[in-house]
Amino acid sequence: MKHIFYKPENAWFADAIPFYENGKFHIFYLLDYRDPAKYGEGTPWFKVTTEDFVNFEDRGEMLPRGSSDEYDMYVFTGSVLKDKKGKYHIWYTGHNTHMDEGNYLQAVMHAVSDDLEKWTKIPEDTFCNLTDEYEFRDWRDPFVWYDEEEKIYKMLLSTRKKAAETRRRGTTALLVSEDNRKWKLAEPFWQPRLYYAHECPDLFRIGKWYYHIYSEFSHYHVTRYVMSESENGPWIQPADDKFDGRAFYAAKTVTDGERRYILGWNPTKEGNVDSGLWQWGGALVVHELFQRKDGTLCCGMPSGVNEAFKEEYAVSFTDTGGKIYENAFTVSSGDGAECLYADEKREGVYRLDLEFSFKEGTRRVGVLINADREKDAAYGYFFEPANKRMVFELFPNFPQYSMNAICVERPIDLKPDTKYKVSVIIDGTICVCYVNNEYALNARMYDFSTGIVGIMVQGNATFGDVRIKK
């Protein structure tokens, strides 16, 4: 396969807006050229379709950018809805920093279609902030659905309270409409006083639980969720309310009626170096969502992605003393750390699968990627029982690198003498790790690309069923 994570040619992928119908996922997205001199300023909506999240068909531009004196010079995030008469609607954000002094920078806008391909904008349905209660520059990311019980259209918006001294003014606003054109402001949907803003709102139900998905535009920049047995709350924030880490953002969900998926983007880094700042946009990454018995959510590898890796290869490792490890084996590091390196270089898109367990007192178990034995350096997903986390970082971390620029992490409760199944997908500078098809963590790696995988242990760990899949 050429790539597993979709990115448009000569541009970057941001903010998926997924819609499912008749066996196909229609993934609308914000296309970022990052070259205004060549392509002009602003972001249009493009679309790809897929049946398996592996093979994508580019359907081209859906919503073009507006001019410098129109609200939607930047066509930002929204949602897709099909009404009772079979017409498709997009409600989206218009953003323009060039508007005249005193005008709003963000507006909610409307477009319609008969076939999900050709869209007509309806400028007269555009509306800006409806009240002085919210900031006029934060009025974005409409998520629209039809409430069958109340027989009314509802819209969630990302906005911020205006009359407050704190920065923690992020609000998910609720609007209602009888005709899906004219909207009225209702009571706030969720106002937790936690974040600067929560972007890209989403709402869905599985069984008795409602889930409100949002992306925290604040300190951690991750996609989170809250849950409730009522659409009107109160909302519960689970102990582990994240789907992934810092390198998975602006995620929204879609269902085919049986399975639900969450689609976000893995960001690039400035200068294409590990120490660069995270950038807006990158490549599409899709996880499958699962509901635990207690109602909390977790995510794993989509079945279509899993089935795309059809060839398997056994892997053998060599330690620094030349000892070879194959099949099932145990590594004891004594009072330090032990690293094992695979004998063969891997190229293209591939996946490393393995199982591991560890003994009480083990501090770290690591899966190494792009290891460089001469430089004594490798990227890795490291599992730390005492810290109850999995972390991606450079090992060892060089003093000249910023830990915050390299490191991404997520919580995971690791128990001794328990088997964990790990799958790591490597596609160029992107890597994604799944643990027990329940925990996911995206990352980026730029400075090393050796194609050598390995294992690191600080303590005592047993490995088995180690395979490369392509």
Task: Tally the structural domains.
Answer: 2
The general outline is elongated
CATH architecture of the largest domain: 5 Propeller
Largest pleated sheet? 8 strands, antiparallel
State the end-to-end distance: 8 Å
Which structural class is indicated by helix and strand composition?
Answer: mainly beta
Number of helices: 3
How large, in whole angstroms, is the Cα Rg?
23 Å
CATH homology-level superfamily of the largest domain: Glycosyl hydrolase domain, family 43
Total beta strand runs: 34
- CATH class descriptor name of the largest domain: Mainly Beta
- Poorly predicted regions are none
Strand order of the largest sheet: 22-21-24-33-26-27-28-29
Helix content: under 10%
- CATH topological fold name of the largest domain: Tachylectin-2, Chain A
**Average of per-residue pLDDT values:** 94
Short description:
The protein is mainly β. The chain has three helices and 34 strands.
Q: How does this model look, in words?
A:
Helices cover 3% and strands 52% of the residues. The chain is mostly beta strands and 470 residues long. The protein has two domains: 12-307, 5 Propeller (Tachylectin-2, Chain A), CATH 2.115.10; 310-469, Jelly Rolls, CATH 2.60.120.560. The strands form seven sheets. Strands 22-21-24-33-26-27-28-29 form an eight-stranded antiparallel sheet. A hairpin with a 4-residue loop joins strand 16 and strand 17 (260-269). The longest helix has 6 residues, at 303-308. It starts with 11 loop residues before the first strand and ends with a strand.
